[in-house]
Amino acid sequence: MTNEFTPATMEAIPTNGQELNYLNNGYGLKSWLLTKDHKRIAILYLISVSSFFILGGIFALLIRINLLSPEGVFTPDTYNRLFTAHGVIMVFLFLVPAVPAILGNFLVPIMIGAKDLAFPKINLLSWYLYVAAGIVLLIAIFAGGIDTGWTFYTPYSTGYSNSNVLLAALGVFIAGFSSILTGINFIVTVHTMRAPGMTWFRLPLFIWGHYATALVMMLATPVLAITVSLMALERIAHVGIFDPALGGDPVLFQHMFWFYSHPAVYIMVLPAMGVVSELIANLSRKNVFGYKFVAMSSLAIAIFGFLVWGHHLFVSTQSIYLGLAFSFLSYAVAIPSAIKVFNWTATLFKGSISYDTPMLYALGFIGLFLIGGMTGLFVAAVGLDVHIHDTYFVIAHFHYVMVGGSLMGFLGGMHLWWGKMTGRQYPEYWARAATIIQFVGFNLTFFPQFILGYLGMPRRYASYPPEFQTLHVLSTAGATILGVGLGITIFYLLWSLKNGKRALANPWGAPGLEWRTSSPPPTENFLVTPIVTWEAYEFAPIETMEVLGYPGDPGKPTQPVSAEHGTED
Amino acid sequence: MIETETAPERIEIHADHHPHLAHHFESMEQQREAGTLGMWWFLLTEIMFFGGMFTAYTVYRHLYFSAFAAGSEVLSVWWGGFNTAVLIGSSLTMALAVFHAQMGNAKKVVFFLLFTVVLGGIFLRVKYIEYSDKFAEHVFPAGDYRWPTGEEPAGPHNPGDLLLMLVGLEATHHPGPMEHGLPVKVTTNYSEEGPYYGTGGQIPEQVQSDSMAGHVRLYFWFYFVMTGFHALHMLIGIGLLLTLAWQAWRGKFSREYHSYIELTGLYWHFVDIVWIFLFPLLYLVDRHL
Amino acid sequence: MSEHIVPKSTYYTIFGALLVGTALTIVFAFINLGNFNIVAALVIAGIKAGLVITFFMHVKYSSRLTKMWVAVGFIWMFLMISITMTDYLTRAWLVYRP
């Protein structure tokens, strides 16, 4: 079956631009800053999260500039502050909120047929907490900096570091609260507000991914909160809870810190995996192979992800026997991830694949997450980890899963739903070019780092022996290319807001509920409560997929949408 | 179940639904269900928050059991037991407040909410007495901490004493042996050349490194941090209860709509459960005769 | 409303049981049971917490979903404590003899 509905071939339906949607339903700063509309809150998050992403990226470039030469450009003290800032911003202010708080907030209610999330005011509060956390962390970073690494290991952070650790702890605490509130909202919404006919196994895999993520957010983040609180109190009182000189155990800090921080990486990747399921299914016009397995894998990853934190503590004097157990469990947690990758690949087989940008991102995700995941198995082996722990191998591993995985997923989702969110389509050829540039740049940045790590280059070092320079230069070159690619994306997305083609309700011909309402959607999402009678990825000719109500046409509850039909009648 | 609204005129039709039904919900039942589930989920995050403290407590109790026992002896079982009973009583009054909300009896709701606040206040008054005693006995872990010798700790010895101390008619702390004849007096120095700097933290003397005195100090840190976070949650709870009592007095709630009272009840009971565990873990370590 | 209304008598009974439990906790603390002291204390505390959850917090009359989530919460905390403790309990098993 040919796919006639690529954005490049569709004529934009000349809408009168007067239809009421969530973007023009009220103007002015107050209508945005006091909004209860989940879609507007998603846009607020988009602006703030993107800003922090760019800032975190600048710190990354500074790191790479420093590493161009063996002696470095900055002093070691400054370098410590640079990588800490990069880590703190990217982990807490970008990776954790990006997909859930932007795409999740926007799409979860629409995909299940609800008018909003369960607790709209709490949703707004979560954004304010995020912004507050961001401001506190900005102050911590720019008024002197933090030099402990984003992991705040004790006793350095509690007794020796002469930097803004307390402020950073406060910022992280507040950011955690923001995350918890988002998680509560998602779980309650999915449990109680699904539209009639939307059974659990008709839910898009995007929802399953976000549900699993919310579980992790709620059970793990409070432990981060108490850990940073105890760290802060220890820094003030020096009682010795984490200080060996006073009878405390620094490894206890590591246990508590990683009890959150390992599940946190699943908070970062599960939503992106949910996005990838949507990208693959919608752009190959085929039901996801093994839908139930993929759904259950999300839950399995969430649960197993809580049982592996000790693999960050292999060389920390943690019990060797417990280390073995954690190693075994770390291998086990790779299984549900692998199931997903197999199922996505099987979905592509004999699908009607269109190589538009979202699909390019999805394919990129599969390849890069594969490498990231497999190298995770390397580090999960206790014996090997003794050699590669705290080297660039680990850095390359987690950047492959975080950037190659989460970021690709995030960008793919942004492209798939850009028209839905903004009413404008992005320029397809520029987007494809940017994606490819990013892919090349990314691999050039991080693949040499596997080699560096294997050869023994430690992480968080400002200078290094001259024999490592070639690989570092390659890496920095790659980072520059990646930066250019990302810059192009940011540029054309902003450009499209004014100059992009107006988006149709269903430019991809996809069956999900979000495509049954206008682009952008009205404030209530649907003008008619949808009744779901179709399965999760039931692709059908576009004429049969009615758009449920068009604002401005109260008398006509349904409107078909296709290129042939042109304007609304 | 297809509902239609007219847009863009946005005619708000309120006649056919409860005034307190939020517009994104389909029914009061759905709203109530969502609220209850939401509050339970928030309580689960609180379990994990306190759970982190319990984890650290378990580790150090395992490592330094005798220090924990020595520290626990300085606490007063009278105060701890009394407080436990008071808090359980406040859970009862909270449950009764919810009962009367379900009955639609606003006056009784206000009464029981305020009764709960009073009991919560008594709990906090006792904690204030205990904290002051501990400061006076120099077992507060920061500042002028001194090794407790195991002499008679402050606290009541009988219910009569307890009531008199509660209302302030009897002094709670009897300055005495606790401050004299100490085998190890740990002093603190503040030095800018030392390893601890930046936040004005105090540098403990080396005598504390891995010593019984230091471990007992760690025990008291757990005492203050755990009961401190618990007390903070109680304060928030009292604030919520006062707000609810005011709203109930103004007639906001009814038989059909009183979910905020139920949800606050869930929160209050949870705070009670945390104390049910804190009491034996902090006050009754190795107390046997 | 479809909510179940618990009679006041149930509340009073549970209140009494909780006070009895508190008294028992204190009594057992002063008896030498060796390693069992902590077990007794936690078991009684667990029963008291269970009573509060079941009756005061209405979990007995709540949906299966709520019951499951409450269990999950406590299991998760227990998991965190026990796995962490496994580290401290098994560190000494491996003694390095050069």
Plain-language structure description:
- The complex is a heterotrimer of chains A (569), B (289) and C (98).
- Chain A has helices spanning 29-33, 38-66, 76-95, 98-112, 120-142, 156-160, 165-192, 205-237, 250-284, 291-304, 320-348, 357-380, 382-388, 392-422, 428-455, 469-499; strands spanning 547-548, 558-559.
- With 569 residues, chain A is mainly α.
- The radius of gyration of chain A is 24 Å and the shape is globular.
- Helices cover 60% and strands 1% of the residues of chain B.
- Chain B is built from seven helices and two strands.
- Chain B has helices at 28-63, 65-73, 77-103, 106-136, 159-166, 212-249, 259-283, and strands at 188-189, 203-204.
- Chain B has a two-stranded antiparallel ribbon.
- The longest helix of chain B has 38 residues, at 212-249.
- Chain C has three helices and no strands.
- Chain C has helices at 8-29, 36-56, 64-90.
- Chain C is mainly α and 98 residues long.
- At the A-B interface, helix 7, helix 8 and helix 9 of A face helix 1, strand 2 and helix 6 of B.
Topology:
The complex is a heterotrimer of chains A (569), B (289) and C (98).
Chain A: H1 29-33, H2 38-66, H3 76-95, H4 98-112, H5 120-142, H6 156-160, H7 165-192, H8 205-237, H9 250-284, H10 291-304, H11 320-348, H12 357-380, H13 382-388, H14 392-422, H15 428-455, H16 469-499, E1 547-548, E2 558-559
Antiparallel strand pairs in A: 1-2
Chain B: H1 28-63, H2 65-73, H3 77-103, H4 106-136, H5 159-166, E1 188-189, E2 203-204, H6 212-249, H7 259-283
Antiparallel strand pairs in B: 1-2
Chain C: H1 8-29, H2 36-56, H3 64-90
Order of helices and strands of chain A: HHHHHHHHHHHHHHHHEE
Structural class of chain C: mainly alpha
Count of separate structural domains of chain C: 1
Tally the helices of chain C: what do you get?
3
- How many DSSP E strands of chain A? 2
Oligomer: heterotrimer
* CATH hierarchy, class of chain A: Mainly Alpha
Overall geometry of chain C: flat
Task: Indicate the radius of gyration of chain C in whole angstroms.
Answer: 19 Å
State mean pLDDT of chain C (0 to 100 scale): 90
Report the biggest beta sheet of chain C as strand number plus sense, adding barrel if it closes.
none
Low-confidence parts of chain C lasting 5 or more residues at pLDDT below 50?
Answer: none
**For the terminal residues of chain C, how far apart are their CA atoms?**
73 Å
Give the SSE order of chain C as H and E letters: HHH
Number of strands of chain C: 0
> Which residues of chain A form runs of ≥5 with pLDDT under 50?
1-16, 550-569
